[in-house]
Amino acid sequence: MNARQPIRDVVIVGGGTAGWMTAAAAARFLAGGGKRRIRLIESEEIGTVGVGEGTIPPMIEFNQLLGIPEADFLAATKATYKLGIDFVGWGAEGERYFHPFGKLGLNLDGIDFHQVWLKYRDHPAIGPISDYSIAALAARDHRFAHPDKSGRSPLANLGYAYHLDAGLYAAMLRRYAERGGVERIEGRITTVDRDPETGNVAAVVLESGLRIEGELFIDCSGFRSLLLGQTLGVEFEDWSHWLPCDRAIAVPSARSEPITPFTRAIAHKAGWQWRIPLQHRTGNGHVYASAHIDDGEAEEILVANLDTQPIGAFNRLRFKAGRRVKSWEGNVVAIGLSSGFLEPLESTSIYLIQYGIQRLFGLFPDSRFSASERTEYNRFMADAYELVRDFIILHYQATRRPEPFWQEVRSVEMPASLRRKIDLFADKGRIFRYSDELFELPSWVAVMLGQGIVPAGHDPLADSLPDDQVIPAIAELRRGYARIAQGLPRHADFISQALAAAKTG
Ligand code: FAD
């Protein structure tokens, strides 16, 4: 058996969001002041996907781990705050709901707040469940503040993330990584050499003839999946029967006022449109199924639904929902689009990159590349992708839209894991979060209710609550939430103040 040696030579293939997030984290946690050599290869000629503007709350932690102050991040990436997603027309045309970040209300006697709400929801003093989400209330009024860390006010329940310019984010992380010792190599990889004995990747060869050897290769090459898919032949598991959207057209439009602290996702006849406000412009895109509309019609729908003038080129993208059956094979770990793709309906791709990096560093191999570390990593990634997949499919299954696309997509048998979740919710509003699952209970509740799944009953434990005390208490809670939300700063003012503290560079 080979002696156990530390990995000293890490090669990252690709310089999109995945490549530079990995490189920045490697500079921070792996480089060890020169003990490990970390190189990143990217090709300007090939370029990057060039979209990806919505994020979810875990991103805050990623920046904090790197020690990047929020103000600097906002300035560098032209970011705005995001309190959730405004879903328009998803249950049926004309309906809308908000998926807020953060927690809902107050649990009573250990009973989840939404169960209490389900029990009393018909009482006139109770109102919609979104009245108990500080993020939803702030979003409605275009306000923002950081959560209250003392935990004593409803503001403690606020969750948030960002909208950002992904190209600028990658550029910021590149500066960070290069300062931390990561070497960037420009060039197109034309050949991948494998070790004849182990089958592992031994080196990549650039068009220029430069040969780059390494011990661990992190494949961030995007949809091509150059190392994991093309070279090692790890198969792609196709999920397009559940998620048939396979194209997108994206275009920026002029900044519009007010800068909304939320993403909007508008359902159309064969897909949906995103609207993401940044400091300097609005990002827009139409994700659609090419089996139901052609590219021309998709562009017309997008343009007809912009709220400001387009100000840049149209970016057309093709993709397929699914994932590689393994993310780690031999000495190659795929992170980002090379590992899998789920449409950006809940802005989960950057999170899956972050999760892949965190798990890889937590299971970082030595020269023996133990099977147990690899297996564990693959299990973590399979679970992460499948749980996100189910959450996205929920939006397509629970819909009453009449168009052929929507009829078709909801007629497909859903994954058993999602069926179980929907059945439990439809019966007594119960949601169980599996270990490590990204989306927390309030997210499932918001989307289930928003998509029109109304539970037949509630948790019997809520029946033990004294009505005469609980109803006034919830009504007071509701008034308190409204008061706090109305007192928050305007989103645009909050950003301006934060930017004043930024260091550029
Ligand atoms: P890419 O950006 O494709 O980068 C691949 C890199 O590999 C490039 O640097 C390229 O030059 C390099 N490369 C490839 N082949 C070679 C070669 N032979 N030699 C040298 N270099 C090579 N995510 C979110 O989190 N939020 C969103 O709102 C969101 N919206 C999206 C909307 C759409 C329509 C799409 C398609 C994706 C969206 N995503 C979103 C996903 C997000 O864009 C990606 O997850 C993210 O950009 C990471 O991409 P990547 O780095 O894996 O790949």
What's the pLDDT, averaged over the residues? 95
**Major sheet strand order:** 5-4-14-15-16-13-17
- Which parts are unreliable, with pLDDT below 50 for 5 consecutive residues or more? none
**Large-scale geometry:** globular
| Residues in β-strands, percent | 15-25%
Bound molecules: flavin-adenine dinucleotide
CATH architecture designation of the largest domain: 3-Layer(bba) Sandwich
> First CA to last CA: what distance?
48 Å
Full CATH superfamily name of the largest domain: FAD/NAD(P)-binding domain
For this structure, the CATH topology of the largest domain is FAD/NAD(P)-binding domain
> How many separate structural domains?
3
Structural class: alpha+beta
Helix fraction by DSSP (H/I, runs of at least 4): 25-40%
CATH class of the largest domain: Alpha Beta
Sheet with the most strands, sense and barrel status: 7 strands, mixed
Query: What is the CA-based Rg, rounded?
Result: 23 Å
How many strand units? 21
SS field, number of helical segments: 15
Please provide a written account of the structure:
The chain has 505 residues and is α+β, with helices and mostly antiparallel strands. It has three domains: 9-52 and 165-240 and 321-387, FAD/NAD(P)-binding domain (3-Layer(bba) Sandwich), CATH 3.50.50; 102-157 and 398-486, no CATH class; 247-318, Alpha-Beta Plaits (2-Layer Sandwich). It is built from 15 helices and 21 strands. The protein has a seven-stranded mixed β-sheet with strand order 5-4-14-15-16-13-17. The longest helix has 27 residues, at 371-397. It is globular and about 75 Å long. It binds flavin-adenine dinucleotide. Flavin-adenine dinucleotide (FAD) is lined by residues 14-19, 41-43, 46-49, 51-55, 166, 188-189, 220-222, 224, 226, 248, 250, 285, 317, 319, 336-338, 344, 347, 349-350.
